[in-house]
Amino acid sequence: MAGQYRFSFGPWNIHEGADPFGPTVRGPISFAKKLTMYKKLGFDGVQFHDDDAVPEMDKLGPQEIAAKAAEVRKMLDGEGLAPEFVAPRLWEGPDTIDGGYTANSPAARQYARDRTRRCIDIADTLGCDLIVLWLAREGTYIREAKDSRVAVERIIEAINDMLAYHPKVRIAIEPKPNEPMDHAYIPTTGHAVAVAYKTSDPARVGVNIESAHAILAGLDPSDEMGFALAYDKLYTVHLNDQNGLKFDEDKTFGSVDLRRAFNQVRILDAYDYGRKGEFVGLDVKAMRTQRQEVATKHLSNSREVFLRLVDLVRSLDTKKIKALVEARDYEELDILIISHLMGK
What we know:
The chain is of the alpha/beta class. It has a single domain, classed as TIM Barrel. It contains twelve helices and ten strands. It has an eight-stranded parallel sheet with strand order 3-2-1-10-9-8-6-4. It has a two-stranded antiparallel sheet with strand order 5-7. β9, α9 and β10 form a beta-alpha-beta unit. α3 runs parallel beside α4, α4 packs parallel to α5 and α9 packs across α10. The radius of gyration is 20 Å and the shape is globular. The protein starts with 6 loop residues before the first strand and ends with a helix. The model has no long low-confidence stretch (mean pLDDT 97).
């Protein structure tokens, strides 16, 4: 039964190992070669930023963008892979230093909308309807720089523009409390769901929950997933792990807190996540110390951890758990779970 899940990751998860304190430590791998690795690692879906599919897209016209995207679709078909989503990369350009949708500059806001429309065009050509919004610079370094009410309204206006632009596109907001901005406007799943209900078509707006982002907000990822599931808004997940409230580490899933990972798998499995075609997405980085020839183990290891946890979830004695809950013997429930994770 564990094989029912489909897994995805983005090409940026196979990377050269640079960080803010040091240069690259591994050689680059071409996008085409990365695609040949997916099936070997047990993955069926590819996550995209718009310029992963169409590099330097700001220099290209609509027809050129469509042609480049069509080439990528042929590559995916050739490898038997599916595109899971496309995300507009709005945080790296000079026009979005102060944000995209929430920038104080009208020209910057217009650039963000135009770029997002081109992102939707790319997704359409690739054959997927899901757009992920990581609102990386939609925030401030100091609160007085922007009006938070106006900023939220501008995010809603931008999402409405996307919904109007394509009648079938779905939007998954990926909340994060900070980094790169000091104060983010949509920091949690609750914020994202609230925004969804303020849009022109709430049925097409949901959430992408990343484990590390929830942890950085001081929250439990499985509870965030449960909240989204209660509203039928969990469109996809980015599973990884995080060692405390610091920078976004994107560690191998389950490598820091196995019980926390177990409960994420448990909530997903309990509510048949994936039955509508959702992928189990990973967003994990190889340790900088990994040599070139073994710099994909973080991906295969994360997938293996997930599937092993599926087996543990499904082998739980649910009758015993129910009895302990009814008896309110949570200490015994606690040791039952710990023992189960320890293989006893």
